[in-house]
């Protein structure tokens, strides 16, 4: 039986890293240098990147996502004993051109054709996001690319989700928010958005306020959930 579609959705807002763009693609492009440390580096880099956003938010000491990403990479490289010349710069540059997941362009095109607004809402620094969008050639399919830099605090602070409401001019209950990060999906739900959790990484449900309306394995499942032909 097909699930009942979300009703009254006027905009689809997407997290960027892990949802539209595959953050693992940077590390995968350096497999020639990383060997058996490829997967540990990918996991630790991402873990520390997220930790640093939360810890800086709690401390009230904001730094942009490029700085946080570099700090997290430095920690991961040192922890794993990776000191190959040029590796750090290569990885950071690759983060600007992460690969989009295969279904992303077609899904965005279907949403736009159906008359829905589309946007990114991300921790990413504006130039980082624009670089990834340009690399994936999805700019014409987006109405807005929104960065937490506009509010000076990282997700899951409610100010971030409110930014999408204000910039799109659409009430929170008419926005479908998509994220691969469970904590992000739950926070958007607690804020009052409708939420489709794209559980690409087979995470367990969070024990946090909010509850996603749907859980999917790929964004390819999204149009049917909001009755897009």
Report what the structure shows:
The protein contains ten helices and eight strands. The chain is of the alpha/beta class. It folds into two domains: 11-22 and 98-225, HAD superfamily/HAD-like (Rossmann fold, 3-Layer(aba) Sandwich), CATH 3.40.50.1000; 24-96, Putative phosphatase, domain 2 (DNA polymerase, domain 1). Helix 3 crosses helix 4. The mean pLDDT is 96.
Which structural class best describes the helix and strand composition?
alpha/beta
Q: What gross morphology would you assign?
A: globular
Number of helical regions: 10
SSE order in H/E notation? EEHHHHHEHEHEHEHEEH
Total number of strands: 8
Termini gap: 18 Å
Number of domains: 2
Largest sheet: 6 strands, parallel
Global mean pLDDT: 96
Named CATH architecture of the largest domain = 3-Layer(aba) Sandwich
Tell me roughly what share of residues is in helical segments.
40-55%
* CATH topology annotation of the largest domain: Rossmann fold
**Strand order, largest beta sheet:** 5-4-1-6-7-8
Task: Give the key terms.
229 residues; alpha/beta; Rossmann fold; DNA polymerase, domain 1; 2 domains; six-stranded parallel sheet; two-stranded antiparallel ribbon; 10 helices; 44% helix; 14% strand
């Amino acid at each position: 039986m097909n699930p009942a579609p979300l009703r009254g959705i006027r905009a689809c807002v997407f997290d960027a890293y892990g949802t539209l763009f595959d953050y693992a693609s940077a590390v995968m492009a350096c497999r020639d240098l990383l060997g058996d440390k490829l997967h540990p580096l990918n996991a630790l880099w991402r873990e520390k990147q997220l930790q640093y956003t939360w810890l800086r938010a709690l401390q009230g000491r904001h730094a942009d996502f490029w700085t946080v990403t570099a700090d997290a990479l430095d920690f991961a490289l040192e922890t794993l004993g990776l000191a190959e010349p040029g590796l750090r710069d290569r990885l950071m540059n690759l983060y600007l051109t992460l690969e989009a997941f295969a279904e992303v362009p077609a899904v965005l095109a279907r949403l736009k054709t159906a008359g829905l607004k589309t946007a990114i809402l991300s921790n990413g620094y504006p130039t980082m996001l624009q670089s990834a969008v340009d690399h994936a050639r999805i700019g014409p399919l987006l109405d807005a690319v929104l960065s937490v830099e506009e509010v000076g605090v990282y997700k899951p602070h409610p100010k971030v989700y409110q930014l999408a409401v204000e910039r799109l001019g659409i009430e929170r209950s008419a926005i479908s928010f998509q994220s691969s990060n469970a904590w992000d999906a739950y926070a958007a739900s607690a804020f009052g958005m409708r939420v489709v959790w794209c559980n690409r990484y087979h995470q367990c449900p969070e024990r946090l306020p909010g509850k996603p309306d749907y859980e999917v394995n790929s964004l390819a499942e999204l149009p049917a959930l909001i009755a897009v032909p």
